[in-house]
Write a structure and sequence with these properties.
The protein has 207 residues and is of the alpha/beta class. The chain contains two helices and 20 strands. 14% of the residues lie in helices and 31% in strands.
């Protein structure tokens, strides 16, 4: 990983966390047990503390930062989708911020809430526990039902497992010039995770 101290403050990464080698951590950054930090994520603790709790994930291309004297916090099992930007906000335990969403200073995404993809959550806005917020600016759309809460919890588990797989098996490699004979690829099916629009559709009964 790109890991840099500033003003004598060095990032802290728990031994069981996975931080991709192409992620960047600067200064007052604390990564908890079993967390996953994806490639090209930038966590800049050069003005205030950035905390990613145990079992949380910050996916590829995310940016976490804050104004001087503030903090940016992802609590345990927080789930931050590809390309999201968090600035001086709090994402509580089990909450999810969707792809390319922006969450601004002093905003709070409460326990098991969901911020939709590409939403803009303005400064000081609060998303209640187990609620869905979407739009630009974000507004509260509805409470999440049990199905959506289960889908979201499964996504968190999938990234916790990815942190373990990445620590165990991810290595630099030279690309092949052709696919190797008999290649099976990654042996995962839809039992691991489904896109939300497919998860909500009725599933055919087994015969």
């Amino acid at each position: 990983m790109g890991c840099y101290e500033i003003d004598g403050v060095t990032p802290v990464v728990a031994p069981s966390a996975f931080v991709h080698p192409d992620a960047v951590l600067i200064g007052d950054v604390v990564i908890g047990d079993g967390a996953y930090i994806g490639p090209l994520a930038s966590l800049r603790g050069d003005f205030g503390r950035i905390t990613v709790g145990a079992g949380a994930n910050v996916q590829d291309g995310c940016v976490l930062h804050c104004f001087p004297g503030a903090t940016c916090t992802v609590e345990p099992e927080g789930h931050i989708g590809h390309g999201a930007v968090l600035h001086g906000c709090t994402v509580q335990s089990g909450a999810m911020v969707g792809m390319n969403a922006v969450v601004m200073d002093g905003a709070r995404i409460e326990t098991r809430a969901l911020v939709g993809a590409s939403a803009f959550v303005p400064a000081g806005f609060e998303v209640p526990a187990e609620a869905l917020a979407a739009g630009n600016p974000a507004r509260i759309v509805r409470q999440l039902d049990d199905q959506m809460l289960a889908w979201k919890a499964n996504g968190i588990r999938a990234y916790q497992e990815l942190a373990r797989r990445s620590r165990a098996t991810m290595r630099p490699a030279v690309p092949l010039t052709a696919i190797d004979p008999g290649r099976e690829g990654l042996l995962f099916g839809q039992e691991v995770s489904l896109p939300r629009h497919e998860y909500r559709q009725p599933r055919p009964e087994a015969s």
